[in-house]
Task: structure prediction
Amino acid sequence: MRTTTAQGAVRGPRPRGTRAAGTRSRCRWVAQADADYVAYHDREWGRPVHDDRLLFEMLTLEGAQAGLSWLTVLRKREGYRRAFALFDPARVARMDARRRAALRKDPGIVRNRLKIDSTVSNARAFLAVQREFGSFDRYLWGFVGGTPVVNRPAPGTVRPRSALSDRISKDLLKRGFRFVGSTIIYAYLQAVGVVNDHARGCFLCPPAPRRTLK
Result:
């Protein structure tokens, strides 16, 4: 769920109902009549991601969102892809001070010096994780044994962080990553499907486990 950041900014509108764009029932954070939000919710949010490039992309976007609305970042996604070499971590890691200074003038991204610099340093840390574990995918999914955490929360009750996000955040910080606080990381885990927080009543909420009689 698009929750509040550590800075307190709201991650998207919170309409009363769970319906948005058509007759399907969706999670409450999906803004009614907003095609970008609906498409992101329906096609990406909560779906397991195992591609390292996309994992780096979402980690960058979640960090860029800190203090802003998620919709602001979502609408700049193509700008980020152009600016950061389609999120190829090896190419991003080589961006020098001159290139980073040029990006601070790019209206297609969030022009915050710390966030731009952290994208480059995070790319270097990302590459170090790949070297150690073989892939960032193996590192990240290792925290949950390769199986998504399915919560099936009641509408409007998703927490902003968890013991899992605390643990991953702490480890990432040790490895030199920035903009990876627990709240940001929990949203990241939701985004890449490590955590599935589609609410009960949402058409994408996984069914409850069947109980068997003994």
Observations:
- Confidence is low (pLDDT under 50) at residues 3-21.
- The first helix runs from residue 35 to 43.
